[in-house]
């Protein structure tokens, strides 16, 4: 068994899709900079595709946002492009676990706090 973990920043908001069986899935794209630079001093960034399914995909669609940092772990899958044999094979991570490393968005926190303050006011009465 091969397990891989990637940590990076989400390159776009999560788009939840349905497969032919009606199950939810999403493809996450992570950008991760290497610790070193090339000979010209430029940062090297790798882009990793992560596939999430079912409840995990729905959780990612609810909580993840463009720019947030996350860690995804799962199996490694090689992708071959049958429609274009000259294209180099790629890979993706079929995630079984996703951990959100960034704080919630400011608007989500404000909504949570305003709901908390309203509840606190009810308790004081």
Written overview of the protein:
This protein has one domain: Beta Barrel (OB fold (Dihydrolipoamide Acetyltransferase, E2P)). The chain is α+β, with helices and mostly antiparallel strands. The model has no long low-confidence stretch (mean pLDDT 85). Strand 2 (17-18) and strand 3 form a beta hairpin. The protein contains two helices and six strands. 14% of the residues are buried. The longest helix is centred in the last third of the chain and has 19 residues, at 106-124.
Any key phrases for this structure?
125 residues, alpha+beta, OB fold (Dihydrolipoamide Acetyltransferase, E2P), 5-stranded mixed barrel, 6 strands
| Secondary-structure content class | alpha+beta
By CATH, the superfamily comes out as Nucleic acid-binding proteins
State the end-to-end distance.
Answer: 58 Å
CATH class descriptor: Mainly Beta
* Fraction of helical residues: 10-25%
Provide the number of structural domains: 1
Radius of gyration equals 19 Å
Kindly report the average pLDDT value. 85
Shape: globular
Individual helix count: 2
CATH architecture: Beta Barrel
Largest sheet strand order: 1-3-4-6-5
In short:
With 125 residues, the protein is an alpha+beta fold. The chain is 23% helix and 46% strand. The chain contains 2 helices and 6 strands.
Helices, strands, pairings?
Layout: E1 3-10, E2 17-18, E3 24-37, E4 43-53, H1 54-63, E5 69-79, E6 90-100, H2 106-124
Parallel strand pairs: 4-6
Antiparallel strand pairs: 1-3, 1-5, 2-3, 3-4, 5-6
């Amino acid at each position: 068994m091969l397990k891989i973990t990637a940590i990076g920043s989400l390159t776009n908001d999560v788009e939840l899709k349905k497969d032919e069986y009606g199950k939810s899935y999403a493809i996450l794209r992570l950008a991760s900079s290497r610790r070193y630079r090339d000979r010209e001093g430029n940062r090297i960034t790798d882009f990793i595709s992560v596939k999430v399914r079912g409840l995990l995909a729905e959780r990612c669609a609810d909580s993840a946002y463009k720019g947030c940092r996350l860690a995804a772990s799962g199996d490694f899958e090689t992708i071959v492009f049958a429609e274009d044999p000259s294209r180099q094979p790629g890979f993706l991570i079929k995630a079984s676990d996703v951990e959100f490393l960034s704080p919630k968005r400011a608007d989500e926190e404000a909504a949570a706090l305003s709901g908390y303050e309203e509840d606190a006011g009810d308790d004081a009465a």
